[in-house]
Prior knowledge:
Shape: globular
Strand order of the largest sheet: 11-12-10-13-14-9-15
Bound molecules: adenosine-5'-diphosphate, zinc ion
Structural class: alpha/beta
Number of helices: 23
Helix content: 25-40%
Largest sheet: 7 strands, parallel
Radius of gyration: 30 Å
Distance between the termini: 53 Å
Amino acid sequence: MQELYADVIIDISHEAIDRAFQYVIPEKLVSQIRTGCQVNIPFGRGNTMRTGYVIGISDRTEYDRTKIKTIDSVCTEGIAAPGRLVALAGWIKENYGSTMINALQTVMPVKKTVRSVVVRYVALAVDETDEIEYKYMKRNARAKLRLLRTLKGENIIPMSKVTGELGVSSATVKAMQEEGVITVTEDSCYRKVTSDAVRKEAFMAPDIELNDIQMSIINEFQDDVDKDVHRTYLLHGVTGSGKTEVYVQCIRRVIEQGKQAIVLIPEIALTYQTIKYFTRYFGERVTVVNSRLSSGERYDQFERAKKGDVDVVIGPRSALFTPFERLGLIIIDEEHESSYKSDNPPKYHARETAIERARLEGASVILGSATPSVESYKKAMSGEFRLWTMDERVSDRKMADTSIVDLREELRRGNRSIISDELAEDITDRLSRHEQIMLFINKRGFNSFVSCRNCGEVVKCPHCDVSMTKHMASNGGKLVCHYCGYTVEEPSKCPSCGSRLIGGYGVGTEKVEQEINRMFPVARTLRMDKDTTSKKNSHEQILESFGRGDADILIGTQMIVKGHDFANVTLVGILLADLTLFDGDYRAGERTFDLLTQAAGRAGRGDVPGKVVIQTYKPDNYAIVAAANQDYRSFYETESAYRSFMRYPPEWNMLVIMAVGEDEEQLANTMDRMYSHIRGNHMNVRHLAVIGPAEPALAKVKDLYRKVLYIKHRDYQVLVDVKNCVEEWLRDDETREINSGINVFFDFNPM
Length: 751
Ligand code: ADP
Ligand code: ZN
Ligand code: ZN
């Protein structure tokens, strides 16, 4: 037989060995080894046993056959990635920049392999029991008799019941097994990840009559599915237009074809309501994977997906890599969200990666949003994506009324509170009518920063070069760095000039709650931010509690604005709309528009129309005005014109190369050299902009310095070439020496 060789990526993250190594596949393993499976191999001079991933198999080798090592064995645990996911990993490596092993680990999110809980069952192995029963009676084998008679009634029972309730010893079970009377089988019992409350609603879908626009969209999808045409659709639907219903119906069409679907949601906080909605349609054929699950629980869900025991998997970004064998549809809800971009290398974008996975596997993609990303909308305009638009809320529900409050005016009139007079009046009114209120501020904590009124010094984290945020604690105030967690007591004097005129400025969720309690002592408040939701299920508890009407006012960060559906909320207050406007990057306008629109969408979901109050210091800003008018198109026109004028994505593409190191001077040298190297190698590429080296907004984090180069070009592939060129340069022995201790990261079109 022809000898076979496997290309194996070693499970060690190091640039120096970031390539495939060839191994002989021993004859006994030939039938087991597939692309994507995990193997044990001897590696290095000492032949240490390592694990690796098979990324390809061939029948020839370019190396000296006698020098090639042999695969030891196949890892029996862990879910082998189907070959197509390995191909996807290759694509991720090429397009986002990372080592192959990091890319592989990304598409295989279950790193620790944990066995499923195995449950053993006892079953009857014979058809005729009379004779055996008689025999046991004669011998007075009471335990055996008990088990036999129970099995006659129930056929199969769990071992736990046999040894527990029935009081039959395992020795007796073994004896009966040897007599051939019973068999013992094992079955994986998957850990349940949805709550009982959710499962109780299985198949209790509301009887909804789809409206015309929903019908026409679903019919179009059905047509494409029937013709085996796979596209990317952009579903642009205002909040409350019934997008979820469209998702559900499209998934149904895909399941009817024997295929499966992945639904991505932007954050864990949305899991509960999404899984509830989907369970009503698909029962236990839907499951969830996210980081809140233990690795064992996650392993089980991937295993179920691979076996085809579930049709729908819901989860954040990483759920995209669910190893379905027959993937038919990927849905990305709230596709504009920045959480779809990974913040660790490889910094892939789930939207682009989903489109690539769909291409590799012959599946469709639906991107949904009330505020599509400028990127996606542009592609929809150019015809690359199919655009579906839903302009109206279901059941003739009105969009909320919006009012912009100019905070400068408020100050001039002498109101120094975080709550404008207009908003205060509206709150009083809603409280008296027992309607609910949501107040949104994009900042947790108490004050956004602490500064000195004498010298202007802002208290910064000594490790990160960002301002520290004030938090209240029972024993006084503390300052916390939101980047590294560094915490200090609130200083009573300015650390820089010694003045006592030091205090907190700006606002956060805690401060708002305190202010509301002071202004409206009877109102019951709930707060939802990163500090109140650190425990498992705390999201659900707060949301359920608010949904039940346990509180009148829910105060929170952006966690509360995304997709939550509370029928009794008739007033939404956006306390400081400008907070996102000055983030200092090119997406600030888009982020502001999105947040305001989403927040506005939370008002008036029931029968009573809602009102939104937007408080701002910049009432004329285009993003704020467009959001107040709920006018996506006008926002898009202004924003995309600005982007192309400034040579930003999506018109242009941008690559940020960041280097991180302890030694500031060495870092500066490295970046200078990298700059020259790029310039030198791409001299004749027209319109290539190489900017820097520069300091990023966060020039120092956790005692490590950072420097960046910005590369811009219209053509994404040119940036990939630059990345490859830098990677090669970094691998060069001489450069490696000089750059030791410095890490380089790539970020394409940063969010
Ligand atoms: P979106 O995601 O677009 O904000 P949802 O999908 O959450 O909106 O829909 C809002 C509500 O409207 C949900 O409770 C949903 O069940 C309901 N709904 C959806 N389609 C219809 C319809 N055709 N008629 C009546 N109610 C609908
Ligand atoms: Zn000072
Ligand atoms: Zn810090």
